[in-house]
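Worked problem 6 (solution included).
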Amino acid sequence: MCSHIGQHILHALSNTPENVSLKEPVCFFFYDYCTLILIHLLKVGNVLPCGFCGRSRLPECSITIKVPASSAPVWETKCIYKHTFKYGFAETGSKNKPCRNVPLKCALCHPALPPEPGKSTRRTPVVSVNAVWRYNMVDHILNEHKEYSVPGHRLPGVALPVVVWMGVKLTDLEQTAAQIPKEHWQVGREGDKENVPASASHT
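Solution. The predicted structure is:
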């Protein structure tokens, strides 16, 4: 379901209207075997939509994340439509499930600290922080980190660190699968050879 909602969110964020006919079968899911979620009859929220339900500004849809050094990130939300998924597979995407809309820890809000003097690493406590869904990262940066440039949105500014750009960048596959017209595809930045996601380090 998260993958399906992600495609609706991509349509909304790329200003691509969806062709929905009420004469066609309505897309739906069962929740707890009794609740119908009529996806095609709901509008995606226009402010940082929830990756599970597509709605905006609902306190229960806020999401946090813990990112351990050697295991998969752990997220938590009270969205009633949440469901479990394998983070590493979802973060990387695949031909069958190209959507990579997963909650991320913003590296601009929570930058990695430099190693301690005389050491190659620095131990930091693993704590929950507010997460940002991948498809919301552009809006998050535009509103919360105004000193940075964002290709296709804001040119003046500091170039995004590579680790942040890899969290923002969409793949050709996920944009094609969501049927986003190429003229509405995400603008890459100079030096990008192709829209390929970074190898996932978590499973």
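Discussion: The first helix runs from residue 2 to 13.
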